[in-house]
Design a protein that fits this description.
Length: 82
Amino acid sequence: MDSPTPAHRAKARDPRPESRPDYYSRALALWPRLEPARLSRVRRDPRRVAALISHRTILSRELILALLGAPQEAGKKGVARN
């Protein structure tokens, strides 16, 4: 009879967390009509992703960054600009 895989032999998760969030996937999930080719050029820079998205919506870049889960800059917390 086969027993379940012992805990010490189970696949271990990669202990290194991903260095940066995947803003590309988040942006496509929230705005599915974005052009993937254009978005792939800016995928790791949340400010550039927000700039690309801001051309298609009335949301501010700060709000787009918040929706993408990007960290807020220390000097700009609570500031909303268009």
